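Continued from yesterday's entry.
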Amino acid sequence: MGRKIALKKVNELDREGFVERFGGLYEHSPWVAEAAWEQRPFGSLAGMHAAFARAVQEASPGRRMALIKAHPDLAGKAAVAGALTGESAREQSSAGLDRLTPEEYEAFTRINRAYREKFGFPMIVAVRDHTKGSIISQAEARLENPRDEEIETALREIDRISQIRLYDQVEPEAEIQEDGSVEEKYKSRIVLGQNNYGKSGVRVFKVRRGSESHDIWDLNVRVVLEGDFKAAHVEGDNSRLLATDTMRNACYALAKDHLVGSIEEYGLALVDHFLEAGPTVTGCRVEITQYLWKRIEVDGQPHDHSFVRQRGERAAEVWGDESGVRKVGAGIGEVYVLKTTRSGWEGFLRERFTTLPDTDDRILATVVTAKWEYNTRRADFDRLWNGVLDQTLRTFTDHYSPSVQNTLYRTGRAVLERFPEVERIWYSLPNVHHVPYDLERFGIENGGEIFHATREPYGQIEGWVERRAGREA
């Protein structure tokens, strides 16, 4: 661990220096530091941590999941082999995870395996807040949770880990003066920094019972409130604070009359309600994930009340403040697409470590994650969401792809050209590699038929396509 750096010096770092210094706060995910750097200058250490937290909160579900999966198992094989990052090694050592008895190691191995089998990602704990015993107790309790709740828990633990790591690296801040100067003499006082609170993992399921057929909505809702919550934090005065249990109840109650069409309209109703209900609330963000169900077909006809869950998720995010500003966004999650030809990768830069050969015919496979922002709060959001998904799939098929980068831009441009209500759109397209399998060693000709499908390591291509005034760049 290097010597601590003063906050003033942090604000003077360029992007490269900042990422080099703080890229390790989030395990194998320097993109968080890159996004946080954009929010400089930081007025306080708490504000700096809030910038990192905001970068994670605003990332796509796919990117947040990749962050979770980047973490090692607790006392796993990487720890035994000495293959952990320096930060993880120090943290696991602080809880004694590098000094386990055979019985303790067996217990951790069992828990790691059970957790991964159930949730599909490693169990994450801010181990510097725990002992070996408390980690095992927490792990056993968390195995009983639903997956959605564990995703949120993992992200909270990652936030805590990053906070501990950050405070290890940066000196407690000096006072930032009104003229922007820094008083060099350290002032020994502690103040409340950026904060928010809310309710996550609210699983709202609604059935609209028509006379003949039924419709369903299957949602995971997250409510985040911002405002003047100092009295509750500093003085323990809860008298002007909405209970998170109240937030949960409101999500269900408002679904009765407001969850009748698009999830965006439902989100707008929730934002309006919480801004009015909370006397100290100045801003509200509602994030909604909708799990998609399709009617089961029987003899070629859709059944009236039987459904099968589809691959992929629909997302919406609505934000509003006390001034009346409302912003609406939407997204797509975990949509798998693949084409078996009309894709290549050639003419790329070569240097001494390059081994990949050129190809003008390869399988292109990816898992589409997208998010976009509307320039209106009044629209047919169901039509637009379905249209963006349709255009995304259409564009994937309609051209020879010289690179995933080119396909990303073509797709975003096609969406913006078709839908003037969309201001900008972001895609995350991991390259899900399909490598021709070597059958020649068995005396069998492959002929481009047999592949090994692998996801790790994989290329990750991401970017915004947006409207700009003036001539197209």
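--- second protein ---
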Amino acid sequence: MEKIVEVKNLTMSYERVDVLRDVSFSLNEGEWLSIVGENGSGKTTLLKGIAGLLPIKGGSIDFGCGLTRKKIGYLPQQTAVQRDFPACVHEVVLSGCTGGAKLLGMRSRSDKKRAHDAIHELGIEHIHHRPYCDLSGGQQQRVLLARALCATEKLLILDEPVTGLDPLVSAELYESIAKLNRERKVAVIMVSHDIAGAVKYSDKILHIGRGVEFFGTTEEYLASDLGKRFAGK
């Protein structure tokens, strides 16, 4: 398999303080990588670096398989303001389309088809005209996942996608992500505090603290002292 992302000796800073130092890992096309670690270890900062939303201080981030940053689907953590966004579901999903002709707010036919397909794939056709702000937390996450899917055919970056959701809704969202990963071969990079979910679905685990404490397959992680301590296996 071809590498879709390769990070080498990455260092990133926040307010002049290094929050990531010398981080290296790679991900092949169609794989699922979960990034775990304690609060403040720089997991979200790392995602923003990959997505091009924050500058890197040192090292490199390289893409393969024809991937560019404009073709990455990104689902960030939600803020309270975003949860109250007044647009309807279809408009929120359509806003994820980064390509296609746009003129005076008009969207291309290909953009509209991509949004329609994403709505269908995430099973939210029945709410596509409803205001986003009126939805439950789980429904909002499905809408945002559909929005991220509109931007990519190759890589989804997910920041704590199941935070605040009840166990049943979390399991359903994980299965939706897993279906995209298995059937469409969309690679996934997910930051999570949910170690159980991470080890259940991931091919690889990146555990970061001040630097990389572990990078390898999920099986290797579960067999390591660090994995045993955090995953309780």
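Confidence is low (pLDDT under 50) at residues 100-104. The chain has two domains: 1-67+154-173+185-233, 79-153. Will compare against the first tomorrow.
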